[in-house]
């Protein structure tokens, strides 16, 4: 049984060795899909026996799906990790014990993902552990074609693992806010696409498969996205911090819930409004407005036709 781990990187010298070490006893091959790092990332990867491949960055989904095309045809299972994540020993042991005995009808396995923020494990707010599908049969899964909050999707049955992986980013708060500013632009693109339909809508949203990811995406697209911008950010924060007891996570948790549960969500809404204002004051469609305001070239990944671009004009 060949299990390949794909790790996406850009300047991840602070995290990569820890990530690789967590899967060294599990993986047949470790592939680092890098977008031209300028620090010691590549040297660290090679020193730990990983195979390095490089590709220009568009977004997480495109990078990962490209990485899949570079794998050995003999690969049986694929595990996706970000460089700032690592598997707990319990999850590694569970995968080693269960994977050889899983029947061919199963396409993927879910596990829990927890997050730390400024050194503290977030336990409240109703957001963790997130159930994520990260392990799947090669050739039967790929990443949703989205700009933000992408998930692995498979067509066949899945199973649930009890172990967890940890998302533990060691960068500064300044780095974190800059990263989430970029994330907010990409999530604004996905929200605008729900409204204007300028690119294919790829989603795991479902009320029927019983999986957390499908339910959360359904609520986000069918309920949250239809609420008034700005107000929905405050309502979401109130739900997490008060109703789901996020305040019990201490000072670090308060910072996390305020920044990730309110500031980030409000920033996404503000960027959506900014794109709409630009469309209202310039003779252009949504794709051009996104490029001018958010500096994201949507057309490079999913070109809009001339007919569609005319439809998006206000």
TrEMBL record:
GO-annotated molecular function: transferase activity
Identify the keywords attached in UniProt to this record, alphabetized. Transferase
Identify the Gene3D superfamilies for this entry: Spore Coat Polysaccharide Biosynthesis Protein SpsA, Chain A
Q: Where is the Glycosyltransferase 2-like domain?
A: 4-102
* Lineage: superkingdom: Bacteria
Q: Which InterPro entries match?
A: Glyco_trans_2-like, Nucleotide-diphossugar_trans
* Tagged with keyword Transferase: yes
Q: Which SUPFAM superfamilies match?
A: Nucleotide-diphospho-sugar transferases (SSF53448)
Checking Pfam families in the record gives: Glycos_transf_2 (PF00535)
Q: Identify its protein family.
A: Belongs to the glycosyltransferase 2 family. WaaE/KdtX subfamily.
* UniProt-recorded name of the protein: Glycosyl transferase
């Amino acid at each position: 049984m060949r299990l390949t781990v794909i790790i996406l990187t850009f300047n991840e010298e602070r995290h990569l060795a820890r990530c690789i070490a967590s899967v060294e006893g599990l993986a047949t091959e470790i592939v680092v899909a890098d977008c031209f790092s300028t620090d010691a990332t590549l040297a660290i990867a090679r020193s730990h026996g990983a195979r390095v491949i490089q590709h220009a960055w568009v977004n997480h989904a495109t990078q990962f799906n490209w990485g899949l095309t570079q794998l050995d045809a003999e690969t049986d299972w694929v595990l996706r990790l970000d460089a700032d994540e690592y598997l707990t020993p319990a999850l590694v042991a569970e995968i080693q014990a269960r994977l050889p005995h899983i029947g061919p009808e199963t396409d993927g396995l879910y596990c829990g993902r927890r997050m730390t923020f400024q050194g503290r494990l977030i336990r409240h707010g109703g957001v963790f552990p997130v159930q994520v599908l990260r392990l799947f049969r090669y050739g039967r899964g790929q990443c949703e074609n989205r700009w933000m909050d992408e998930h692995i999707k498979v067509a066949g049955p899945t199973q649930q693992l009890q172990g967890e992986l940890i998302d533990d980013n060691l960068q500064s708060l300044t780095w974190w806010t800059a990263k989430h500013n970029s994330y907010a632009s990409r999530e604004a693109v996905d929200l605008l696409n729900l409204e204007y339909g300028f690119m294919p809508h790829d989603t795991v949203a479902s009320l029927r498969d019983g999986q957390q990811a499908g339910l959360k995406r359904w609520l986000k697209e069918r309920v949250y996205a239809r609420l008034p911008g700005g107000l929905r950010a405050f309502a979401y924060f109130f739900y997490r911090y008060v109703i789901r007891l996020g305040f019990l996570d201490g000072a670090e948790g308060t910072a996390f819930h305020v920044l990730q549960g309110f500031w980030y969500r409000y920033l996404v809404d503000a960027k959506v409004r900014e794109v709409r204002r630009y469309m209202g004051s310039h003779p252009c469609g949504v794709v051009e407005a996104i490029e001018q305001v958010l500096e994201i070239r949507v057309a490079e990944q999913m070109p809009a036709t001339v007919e569609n671009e005319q439809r998006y004009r206000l």
